[in-house]
Specification:
Helix content: 10-25%
Number of strands: 0
Distance between the termini: 76 Å
Order of helices and strands: HHHH
Largest sheet: none
Shape: elongated
Strand content: under 5%
Length: 284
């Protein structure tokens, strides 16, 4: 309130000075009504400690809230950045509650995040070999451009997670929830997605050479322009999955469930592509 009062007085004084001393002014060298008003207003403002609380009550009653100064802003920023670009190799965050935490660009090799709460967390650009994310909750997390080679996400919840352009070579997503997640453009070579629940997920442009999708729910999954060479789909439900532009050389879809010729009409198969009986795909 002191600050508001000071500003009001300062504005009044400034107007008074300008209209009183400025040559050419209409009121130059004459009695200044603004100055007189200012004097009267300035009297009670000198007792701002008394009128401050009263003015605040009036504003509150009218439903008007004065903007506050966020003195904790710097502390909040520091807290948000304490995990950024750090070396946490070998450290344990098992069973910890870390929602919306920021591990962007950090080094996490052999770190433990099993059973941790990481909903909404950012691991964008983070790197690490054999990181343990088993059973972690990572809904809506950001793993874009992350490199988690040979890491274990088995049983983890990655619903609506973003892992675009990441490198998950040799990683395990066994029995993980990948529904509506995005691995577009990611390197998924020899990655294990067995029994994963990936309905609605995007693998557009991903390199999933040698990946295992056996027993996975791939309903509505997009494999547009993905490389699926030597990938296996035994028992995988691919209902409504989109294979447009997908490279299927050496892929084994012979045991895939709900696969149709129409789904493969724009795919790229080869003589070593294995398909269910009665299902065909164009060769290229």
């Amino acid at each position: 309130m002191k600050l508001i009062a000071f500003i009001m007085v300062l504005m009044i004084v400034l107007m008074s000075v300008i209209t009183t001393i400025t040559p050419g002014s209409k009121n130059y060298n004459k009695s200044n009504p603004v100055a007189e008003i200012g004097k009267e207003i300035a009297k009670p403002l000198t007792q701002v400690e008394q009128i401050g609380p009263e003015l605040e009550k009036v504003l509150d009653g009218a439903g008007v809230k004065l903007p506050g100064i966020n003195v904790g802003g710097a502390k909040a920023v520091k807290e948000d950045l304490k995990h950024v670009a750090q070396d946490f190799s070998g450290e344990s965050f098992s069973n910890q509650d870390l929602p919306k935490s920021n591990f962007a660009s950090s080094y996490l090799s052999q770190a433990l995040f099993n059973e941790a709460l990481l909903d909404g967390a950012s691991l964008e650009g983070a790197t690490g070999d054999t990181v343990n994310f088993k059973g972690a909750r990572m809904a809506k997390s950001n793993l874009n451009a992350a490199m988690f080679i040979n890491s274990d996400f088995s049983g983890a919840e990655l619903r609506e997670a973003k892992a675009r352009a990441g490198d998950f070579t040799g990683a395990k997503f066994i029995d993980a929830d990948l529904s509506f997640s995005s691995f577009a453009g990611a390197n998924l070579s020899k990655t294990d997605f067995r029994a994963a629940y990936a309905t609605g997920a995007s693998f557009n442009g991903a390199n999933a050479t040698g990946a295992q999708f056996d027993g996975a729910d791939l309903t509505g999954v997009r494999f547009i322009n993905a490389t699926l060479g030597n990938a296996t789909f035994t028992g995988a439900d691919v209902k409504a999955a989109d294979f447009s532009g997908a490279i299927l050389r050496g892929a084994d879809l012979s045991g895939a469930v709900n696969l149709t010729t129409e789904q493969l009409a724009k795919a790229c198969a080869a003589t070593d592509t294995k398909l269910p009986e009665g299902v065909t795909a164009p060769r290229c």
